[in-house]
Amino acid sequence: MSYILQGKWEEKRLDDQANIDQFSIQDELKGIDIPPGAKVLDAGCGSGILCRFLEGKFPEIEVSGCDQSIQSLSYAQENTKNISSKYFQHDIVRDHLKDKYDYIFNRLVAHHLGEEQLKRTIQNFFQALNEGGKIHIVDVDGVFLNLGTTSPLLREKIEKVKQAFNGDLQVARYLPSLLFETGFKNIACKIEVMNFQGRSRVLEVEQWKERFVSGLSFYGEVFGNEFEAKKFFKEYTQEAAKEHVPLFCNKFIVTANKS
After folding, report:
1. 158 Cβ partners below 8 Å, 6+ apart?
2. Contact by Cβ (8 Å): 141, 167
3. Which residue, of 23, 61, 157, 212, has the greatest Cβ tally within 10 A?
4. Domain at 10-143+166-197+248-257, CATH class
5. Residue 98: count of CB within 10 angstroms of its CB
6. What is the mean pLDDT of the chain?
7. Where exactly are the structural domains of the chain?
């Protein structure tokens, strides 16, 4: 798995992102009830924000989080030191999980994977779930791409980034089918339009400024050097800040059972 956002403040950015209405964890988990004693994993836990939320809402469950990034795990551990969440390093694409779980959550990770990587990841999740266990995947479809600019040059640059990106910014739409093909049952898919306007647009543009800084190395390779990368950042964020320019994506909330 390749995660291009590796900046010094990336984990803090992930925490801040959850304060934008469109990224509300509470809304994403609406209707989910986890029984006491359940063993729960946040696969690709990042800053640990979902682990903290889960343990706060369901204090009698056993919560763990895994991530490939040591930096993220250190941040998560530091910010959950007063609760019992456990963290460990793990590559969810390449390696099987050693333990079994009743619930596996995977939030805003899928689009960083190509379709084949996502297939292997879902297979790993299936293997790691107890019989009757549940999976809950949240991901965005069209993020970064869905900027309604009329600038041919900016659209060309956006397409250049899309082609260079190791993941798939539209892979969320395939999640239900991939879960079905793996053997999951009772698949439910909720799709929400994340339409950034007003205050949420201001916050999302700030998020993009931070995402670009964290991914500077990647963008520098795409555009040849840091100067051209920063020029693109400025063009994109200035366009995204204009209220008349659509800035949106679709959020997929997909649940299924292993039975």
Report:
1. 144, 145, 147, 236
2. no
3. 23
4. alpha beta
5. 8
6. 93
7. 10-143+166-197+248-257
